[in-house]
Amino acid sequence: MFSVLPKDCQIVWVTTRGASFWAVNYKITVQPLGEETEQSYFMKVFLHNRGREMVKAEYESTKAWHNVVPGNVANPIGWGELVNKPGRWFLLLEFRDMADEMPPASDFIAVVAAGHKASVSPTGKFGFHLTTFAGDQANDNRWCDTWEAWFTRAMRNTMEAELRVHGPHPELEALSEKILSRVIPRLLRPMETNGRKLRPSLLHGDLWHGNVGAEHGTGVPIIYDCGCFFGQNECA
């Protein structure tokens, strides 16, 4: 952690800022050498057995969203392994003080739309350059030429995960196959045939009200806990 903080800074105090099933959050306040103003950072320590993958994915995802809407996503500072706790991985970001309320829907939607419009897939395809996560569920982000291919694979992975957790379910398995082989092609394929082309947009990947807040004092929408991939913009 100290390797990604300002050089020669002194830690003033550290306090917890909530937790999830697989991470604990902290606010770290430091006093940089030769400066009068303190600086604060947000640190997330992953407790999951896939912590290294998850922290790297969130760092890369946050960086991608910060690049397109910098005022609405905390700047990611760095990530790494805790020296005194091997196997525990941390993510360090700038601290954005958030109020206990949601931003106005119109302001929030405008930020999401701006991110979609400003982003450009580096390959022109659908996917991402590494596996990302929605919670602790991994997204298979290998690049696909079409949105139908990416979405079908994601749905199949979700259905298979459901069966692994709850066991065999003949009705669900029959319905799943029909959705994959009939419903998805009928809904999505027309958008990418006869000269039509979907433009991949950068998506948050885990966008729900628990991953959105309003900055204290300004009301600016803040988006966090990103698990990005490039997809069709209506997926969000």
From TrEMBL:
<protein>
    <recommendedName>
        <fullName>protein-ribulosamine 3-kinase</fullName>
        <ecNumber>2.7.1.172</ecNumber>
    </recommendedName>
</protein>
<dbReference type="InterPro" id="IPR016477">
    <property type="entry name" value="Fructo-/Ketosamine-3-kinase"/>
</dbReference>
<dbReference type="Pfam" id="PF03881">
    <property type="entry name" value="Fructosamin_kin"/>
</dbReference>
<dbReference type="InterPro" id="IPR011009">
    <property type="entry name" value="Kinase-like_dom_sf"/>
</dbReference>
